[in-house]
Amino acid sequence: MDHEKLHRLVGAVKSGRLSRRGFVRRLAAVGLTAPMATQILALAGAAPAAAQAPSGYTPTRAGGGGPLKILYWQGATLLNPHFAVGTKDQDGSRLFYEPLAGWAPDGTLVPFLAAEIPSVENGGLAQDGRSVTWTLRRDVKWHDGEQFSADDVIFNHEYATNPATASVTIGTYRDVKVEKVDDFTVRVHFDKPTPFWAEAFVGTRGMIIPRHKFRDFVGDKSRDAPTNLSPVGTSAYRFTEFKPGDIVKGERNPGYYLASRPYFDTVEVKGGGDAVSAARAVLQTGEWDYAWNLQVEDEILKRLEAAGRGRVNIVDTGNIEFIQLQNTDPWTEVEGERGSVKSRHPTLTDPAVREALNLLVDRKAIQDFIYGRTGIATANYVNNPPRFRSPNTSFEFNIAKANEILDRGGWTRGAGGIRAKDGRQLKFVFQTSINAPRQKTQAIIKQACQRAGIELELKSVTASVFFSSDVANPDTYTKFFADMQMYTTTMSQPDPQIFMEAFVSWEASTRENKWQGRNITRWRSEEYDRTWRAATAELDPIKRAALLIQCNDLVIQNRVVIPVVARPLVSASSRTLRDSLSGWDNTFWNLRDWFRDRQS
Amino acid sequence: MLQYFARRLMVAIPSLLGISVVLFTVLALAPGDPFEELATNPAIPPEVRENLRTQFGLDDPVHIRYLRWLLAMLQGDWGYSFVSRVNVDDLILQRLPTTILIIGSSQILALLIALPVGIMAARRPYSVFDQVANTLAFIGFSLPTFFTGLLLILLFSIALDWLPFVYRADIDATGWRWWWEHLRQSIMPVLVLGLFQGAALTRFVRSAMLDVIRLDYVTTARSKGLPERTVINRHVVRNALIPVVTLMALQVPAVFGGAIVTEQIFRVPGIGSLLISAVLANDTPVIMAVTFVLSVLVVLCNLLADIIYGWLDPRISYR
Questions:
Q1: Domain interval for residue B249
Q2: What ipTM was assigned to the predicted interfaces of this complex?
Q3: Which of A151, A157, A269, A458 has a C-alpha 20 to 30 A away from that of A414?
């Protein structure tokens, strides 16, 4: 992608010489999708940032909506956002706490406790990318009536960065410095130019807790704070009851700072049970209004949906189910370490083999017969937001071509039809966690490989072992003592920088770092390292997007991984519920805009 | 008697200690750790996980962790949940009333079914009534609770739309409506557990009755000219109930076990669902506490059974 030309075009739109539609059409001509083009405009400041969430909130007065009943098949276990390990806990906290800004479904920011989104134009973003200044709303009161101010924001930074607090948000806050400019202005300082500045105080890990309630409970004493279990936040609903793992209840906050919000009088989140029966309670019996995270086969969802009482929501995310190909040798020990970075995989490092494997994954069939609407076949590792989706990749399923490539690469069929070269057979161990769709996918791939003379030995590991960080267990995914493995990785921010860190050479997962390095395939490429580094320092959003797309392309073209399906978020809502969901933030990120449409 | 009781309690202590050692070791050896979700989230640095592990003392050797747990337990400190960071005893106390309510009602239901049906069946063995009761009882205890639970949901919630299948411990209603809502949501879980228990008990009551009804003293009572009702109620049932009571006491832990599955199906916020979610989250202190409470129950129920046995049958002496 030629970014200079793009800049000229954006400039033309800004000065009015080119219409926005004309811009989109020009980009479409070079193969860029319309949403990507619009997002490029937004990035370059030529379009208004999403000022309000695109939810179509219509009620004209607050309250009167009755109860909102939500089912989670895993109930929230704690309500302090700084301790919230999983989505369920973050969501539970988000009922009552708000960040400065949240992420809309298209990956743009929506202000919550902030008065506006910082930008270069409004002076919020420093030109050198080393600081960002947030102006806060002045009309925000905590649920107990105290005034919200910059001190609360500063306090959250202190609270999270104290190692004795043992907060899970420490990673978000420890590398930034926070300065109080005045009572309603806060400046976040970075020690180097930071193009992706919207992490601290934003989204899932950015919820703000009240200083006056937690002041005496920093560090070692953090566990004793009574407010851990009875939150006092700023959101549209205030806390009434909590039983860990079972139920969280709230009622309408009459002092909420937005007019005519929220709509419902009470909100109740019930935990426990299983995903299928949760889907049933919403879609089939209509007893409940919303069911979270339905990891249920699409066929079952379709059947339940046929009852006509509710609908299934599919929300785009960056999560992806993908196959990793091994680079080091997992079967021989080098200096007492399997999969040592000093070794090379004897057969999988041949590009011809990787190319063939890529052709043997029938993504279309996997989507059609296994995942349905809940897994979209893709050629890219980064799929969303659209501005980072590479237009340069494609996938196909072609056994004949795979055979041809292997023939050309000198891999000849031997005993039992298995290909070999220099006495080394194409036999691979393919591991994944135990999960019905994954085992089906494994079987589909194994069949195709067989027809190309590659033998796969399928291995499935209990999820609790596979995904554990247990250093003593050889079957964890971070150790990757196999030739191929498949799982889903989540992209928690609408920016691929951290996501793509999983391929830089210094992150290789080894014994030295107790297999906690994020580069699990142990692939090392100087070109990739250089490109990723350049992206992390590039302040120009368009150039940076181009660099990150190049990162994706390097990973795909070198067949470091084989993407299978992109995994959207799946949930269910009753027919009358108008929810507002985003794949980049918590389920309740915009709960203030949820309402019931009596007409439909 | 008191001496016997004291001695039995003393014997119970080493067995409880043994149980706790086994539980703790098994849990420590089991794979997985409570910070799985942290491990798969790229935005959380690994040091956070390390930090939490040290803070929760997970990196110490097993025997040290066990001793620490035991000492705290002896002082009445049950530890706190890794996941919710709430004290374990609070969590258990929060869940206990619901479980006791459901299990209590289902035991009562089981008795209400088993006693009359078992007695009636034994009075006329191999009659039509007996055959039917036997067959139903057989079906009843052959069907696992998770299956009957799903069947009931399909029938009453989905096909007929009469009953809710999501149990809510606190209902926003007062007075009659509150009772009515509670009754409506408890019917299915209580029915599932009660029928399962009832079926097994029915067969047991029947065979205990049959054992007694053939004895000479019953014939004597009959030949004395006592009315049939008196013979059955005063002479047969009383004696036949001795083993039944023992069985009930011994089955209490089994009922708790069965309730785990049932609670999960109906989302009843009881001990069982607490245990399941703790197991799924590898929340060791909670698993340890709940299983330990269950094993204490087993030991105590055994003791209770022995004591009741002697009380019902004075021929048994305690030495």
A1: 96-312
A2: 0.81
A3: A458
